[in-house]
Design brief:
This protein has 229 residues and is α/β, with parallel strands linked by helices. Helix content is 33%, strand content 19%. It contains 9 helices and 9 strands. The chain has a 6-stranded parallel β-sheet, sandwiched between helices. It has a 3-stranded antiparallel β-sheet with strand order 5-4-6. The structure holds 2'-O-acetyl adenosine-5-diphosphoribose.
């Protein structure tokens, strides 16, 4: 049966591309304080520190290659007879490098945002405090990343997709950050089947009907092959 599939991805799908996750042992949030590098208050206090953090991640992401899981999702999006919507919390651009399109609810490293006028432009590889906005010329450029305390992007569009999907899959996310952690419930209320693909149980595993446990590069291609068979 062809239907609409919504796939939510998190840092775990990019782990095997060499990009660190946030909450696994030794992850980014063990090395950096969230309040210093991922809040508007942290940016106001020390923009140079925040830019250094995202510059390093931007360089790493630019060098990273998609893995078999990103490629399998791109294949699913191309070959599934219904609609496949990928919603990602990741800011790395690996879905696009694999040939897929994705809704970036937490922003993108490749984009810069003016906090004065809201204009967006392609980020330079390295940003610095006082980055000028090409539209209003205010020295108000920041990474186009959704920080804690800010509203994730595209929430209305995502809610529409969740309410109309037949299958909801969550891949490589710990289920600790809302609103993404609540998507499984929204999809289930709307009547969708739900499946979680993760290296281990997450905070919200019990909310899913079906589970595939293992590294994304193995379990995602298997799952996609079953769907397309
Ligand atoms: P986390 O670091 O919280 O969780 C990563 C998840 O991936 C965990 O559940 C791991 O078990 C799983 N995982 C690790 N390696 C894997 C692999 N090879 N294959 C499959 N799964 C694997 O990352 P997120 O859930 O994405 O937000 O974090 C959500 C948000 O919190 C991020 O978007 C970020 C962060 O703070 C912002 O920065 C706004």
């Amino acid at each position: 049966m062809a239907g609409k599939i919504v796939v939510l991805t998190g840092a775990g799908i990019s782990a095997e591309s060499g990009l660190g996750t946030f909450r696994d042992e030794g992850g980014l949030w063990a090395q950096h304080r969230i309040e210093d590098v991922a809040t508007p208050e942290g940016f106001a206090r020390d923009p140079a520190l925040v830019h250094r953090f995202y510059n390093a991640r931007r360089i790493q992401a630019a060098e990273a290659l998609p893995n078999a899981a990103h490629e399998a999702l791109a294949r699913l999006q191309r070959d599934w007879p219904g609609e496949v919507v990928i919603v990602t919390q990741n800011v790395d651009g690996l879905h696009e490098k694999a040939g897929a399109t994705a809704i970036h609810m937490h922003g993108e490293l490749s984009s810069a945002l003016c906090y004065r006028c809201g204009h967006r432009w392609p980020s330079p590889p390295e940003m610095a405090p006082g980055e000028p906005c090409p539209a209003c010329h205010a020295r108000a450029g920041r990474p186009d990343i959704v920080w804690f305390g800010e509203m994730p992007y595209h929430m209305d569009e995502i809610a529409d997709h969740l309410q109309t999907c037949d299958l909801f899959a969550s891949i490589g996310t710990s289920g600790q950050v809302y609103p993404a952690a609540g998507f499984v419930q929204e999809a289930a209320y709307a009547g969708a089947r739900t499946i979680e693909l993760n290296l281990s149980d997450s905070e919200i595993s019990r909310a899913f009907e079906d589970h595939r446990v293992g590294p994304a590069s193995r379990v995602v291609p298997q799952w996609v092959a079953e769907l397309l068979a």
